[in-house]
Write a structure and sequence with these properties.
Elements: H1 21-28, E1 32-36, E2 39-42, H2 44-63, E3 67-68, E4 74-76, H3 77-83, H4 85-88, E5 94-97, E6 103-106, H5 111-119, E7 130-139, E8 154-164, H6 167-187, E9 192-196, E10 206-213, E11 219-224, H7 239-250, E12 254-256, H8 262-268, E13 274-289, E14 299-301, E15 307-309, E16 311-318, H9 319-330, E17 347-351, H10 359-373, E18 378-380, H11 387-397, E19 401-405, E20 413-418, E21 424-427, H12 428-436
Parallel strand pairs: 3-7, 17-18, 17-19
Antiparallel strand pairs: 1-2, 4-6, 5-6, 7-8, 8-16, 9-10, 10-13, 11-12, 11-13, 13-16, 14-15, 19-20, 20-21
């Protein structure tokens, strides 16, 4: 992509409500544009990052055998009346009526809808277990939308739902998802900590929030620091290893504030290992048994022919919130620092250009084409402005690698730089090798 053609409408005057860095940086680099309170358009740069995050989330769901589908955003109120949540959900639910005056709603979550789909087609235990997921827009009429896409009203979420015959098997589905979440966040360059959490309006009795540490986070957390030492690489997706993973994590105190108890904390964690801090919730998983299957009469015939309510869990990842959360976790001063896995571009070429001498731009175009032919996603800054301004701009954008084409280059060697590291003078083959890694 040529920078001169890329649509990056930068917001120069930051609105007063842009209080946290990720919100400011997303506006300053034209990633999003507010369309009304808590509702945003995703502009090309922001959308590109979100799609890369979505891809990783999807791959890790597929890796544990979850099946992708797509449910609509607009739901009928009937199923919510059956589950009893139509009244309980309160003002966060956006209620709509159609031309026939039917009560509809913009889905804040999909437990009812998936239960309805499942109960109308699955009748036997033989089809269990099942895990379904979709990645779809949600709407929650938050009382105080804030911090940009971090807490907005319309947001993009991966939500998955598991169906099992009994609690033992349901816990295995839960553990698989726990594992998929650890892997997903790791690939996004984040260190996430699973914390025991309350279940809230989703209901149920087993729940973890996946939190990444950040001063601007809204979740207060209390944890034993030693939980950071658990390496998630040693686990695999089989039931024994998954059980070991859950046991290992549960050895350390790690809770959000609604589960916090000072006495317990002091008893279980040495003073030196205690950490009280803030974090951002990027995922949340629940096991809730028959909370929905019972009122919605969702049963399967078990082996002995008896009707059994299916045991369910639900599992969310805030895909759009993650864009802001990654910025929040990684930025240094005023610079974004995209992990390679989700950076809007793999590399940016920055030629020093002036009207009288366009030779650097010509050289840059050649490198640009060479890299593109190798399947590398390149941005070329073909704009005529001072090299100092260019550096400032690219520091802000946070693309992980830069190729600088100025006075230091020779016939076939270029200045190549990983953000924040010293530049090296190197040839195109080595550059390709590093970028392809
Ligand atoms: P929170 O405690 O932050 O309000 P929640 O517990 O209501 O979130 P869940 O129902 O667990 O949210 O939703 C799953 C995920 O969706 C959350 O972990 C979060 O990443 C994301 N999410 C929830 N609400 C919002 C929102 N208003 N804006 C952006 N993302 C959100
Ligand atoms: Mg939650």
């Amino acid at each position: 992509m040529l920078l001169s053609k890329l649509f990056i409408p930068i917001t120069k005057d930051l609105p007063a409500e842009a209080k946290i860095k990720s919100h400011q940086l997303m506006l300053r680099t034209g990633m999003i544009r507010q369309s009304s309170a808590g509702i945003y358009s995703w502009l090309p740069l922001g959308f590109k990052v979100m799609k890369k995050i979505e891809k990783i989330v999807r791959e890790e769901q597929n890796n544990i055998g979850a099946q992708e589908m797509l449910m609509p955003t607009i739901q009928s109120s009937d199923i919510w009346k059956e589950s009893g949540r139509y009244d309980d959900y309160g003002e966060e639910m956006l209620r709509i009526s159609d031309r026939q005056n039917r009560e509809m709603l913009y889905g804040p979550t999909n437990e009812e809808q998936i239960t309805e789909i499942f109960r109308s087609s699955v009748k036997s235990y033989k089809l269990l277990p099942q895990i379904f997921y979709h990645i779809q827009w949600k709407f929650r009429d938050e009382l105080r939308p804030r911090f940009g896409v971090m807490r907005c009203r319309e947001f993009y979420m991966k939500d998955a739902y598991s169906f099992d015959l009994n609690e033992n098997e349901a816990v295995l589905s839960y553990n698989k998802m726990f594992y998929a979440y650890l892997k997903t966040f790791k690939r996004l360059g984040l260190r996430s900590i699973p914390m025991k959490a309350e279940t809230g309006p989703i209901g149920g009795d087993l729940s973890h929030e996946f939190i990444i540490l950040a001063d601007t986070g809204e979740s207060k957390i209390y944890t034993d620091k030693r939980i950071f030492n658990i390496s998630t690489d040693k686990y695999s997706n089989d039931s024994n290893s998954l059980k070991k993973m859950r046991d290992d994590f549960s050895k350390f105190y790690a809770v959000t504030d609604d589960k916090f108890n000072q006495e317990d904390f002091n008893k279980k964690v040495n003073k030196g290992d205690q950490l009280e801090t803030k974090g951002i919730e990027v995922g949340h998983i629940f096991y809730f048994g028959d909370k929905y299957s019972k009122p919605m009469n969702c049963t399967v015939d078990s082996k002995d022919g008896k009707k059994t309510f299916v045991k369910m869990g639900s599992y969310g990842v805030g895909v759009s919130r993650l864009v802001a959360a990654i910025i929040e976790a990684k930025y240094v001063n005023d610079k974004m620092k995209w992990p390679k896995s989700v950076a809007p571009f793999d590399v940016v070429i920055i030629p020093s250009i002036n009207k009288k001498d366009m030779s650097n731009l010509e050289k840059a175009l050649k490198v640009y084409n060479d890299l593109r032919n190798k399947g590398i996603d390149v941005l070329l800054d073909d704009i005529e402005e001072s090299i100092t301004n260019k550096f400032k701009k690219h520091d802000l954008l946070g693309i992980p690698y830069q190729i600088i084409i100025g006075s230091k280059i020779t016939q076939d060697k270029f200045e190549f730089k990983e953000s924040d590291k010293e530049a090296e003078i190197t040839d195109i083959n080595k550059i390709i090798k590093i970028l392809k890694k």
